[in-house]
């Protein structure tokens, strides 16, 4: 998942173009349509404006930064009166109508970002109420309201519920919780792809392993959002059979699948049409977070090491969401995003929009340094600030995959 919801977008929109922001910088905006000053990135925001903004703000808060007010205000201003968010609204002053395609993924991501930045209690509450109102009877969520549930959408909503202090197990429809949906998407250990999660069953009800959905599902089953730290070691290294697996067993089995998937090369392969034998940088970054959260530190660090050597150009081409993903991967394994293969992910991300601030003069000192090595101090300070004042939305404990 470059943006953890690419599979959901493909399923909902039905066109490969909808996933363009997940795999490349995307088409340039029309010369007549200037980008909003508070928005991060320079590519057309039509498909990923809210998503990339949300991940950016989350990454900044995780590092201890205070995002620029205009960046937060832009995100909050994208909300519809119903509480939902669409991928992008060019004219947020205009009321949302039936033509505005709101969805669960952008809504959930925006909630996590606004919760992390603080000061938007009403907006967060309305969005969570809307998310609960579109829960499906199987306990999960689809990308679009009323759409068939999928692992990715369900997982990002789970992370949002946890971020606002709601136990996902208590959010039910027809007696089903989101954990029931995730368990239903888990492939039994004795089947092909055992341990992995499917994005959705096919028309015959068969489940097929999907690395993107599996990475998302690990965090969903663990009740985590985009920000995750190293978890305790799994009960078993390999996939363990269970009639109706608990959320922890779903996560551990999925973690075993991901660990095996990156064991040889350190990365996942792209599943996009026409991308044979190409690395999947975004899903690999999500896999790092998932493996770390599931307590598989060694495998997570190996995959992160591969990213550090190979993902710099991808991030530069892809923009804010990619930089944010790599920062969150660094956070998960305790690495320094200020020195990512000789490049500062932090400076690179912050340069794409309004400059955030850190307590005292931390940000100014970091940006004035010539190299990435000096950022280690501020990375440490940022983490301490986050831990000390309780900001960030899921420091106590999930990221979009192609079917």
UniProtKB/TrEMBL annotation:
<dbReference type="InterPro" id="IPR032696">
    <property type="entry name" value="SQ_cyclase_C"/>
</dbReference>
<dbReference type="GO" id="GO:0046872">
    <property type="term" value="F:metal ion binding"/>
</dbReference>
<feature type="domain" description="Squalene cyclase C-terminal">
    <location>
        <begin position="107"/>
        <end position="154"/>
    </location>
</feature>
<dbReference type="InterPro" id="IPR008930">
    <property type="entry name" value="Terpenoid_cyclase/PrenylTrfase"/>
</dbReference>
<protein>
    <recommendedName>
        <fullName>Squalene cyclase C-terminal domain-containing protein</fullName>
    </recommendedName>
</protein>
<dbReference type="Pfam" id="PF13243">
    <property type="entry name" value="SQHop_cyclase_C"/>
</dbReference>
<feature type="signal peptide">
    <location>
        <begin position="1"/>
        <end position="24"/>
    </location>
</feature>
<keyword id="KW-0812">Transmembrane</keyword>
<feature type="transmembrane region" description="Helical">
    <location>
        <begin position="375"/>
        <end position="395"/>
    </location>
</feature>
<keyword id="KW-1133">Transmembrane helix</keyword>
<keyword id="KW-0472">Membrane</keyword>
<keyword id="KW-0732">Signal</keyword>
<keyword id="KW-0479">Metal-binding</keyword>
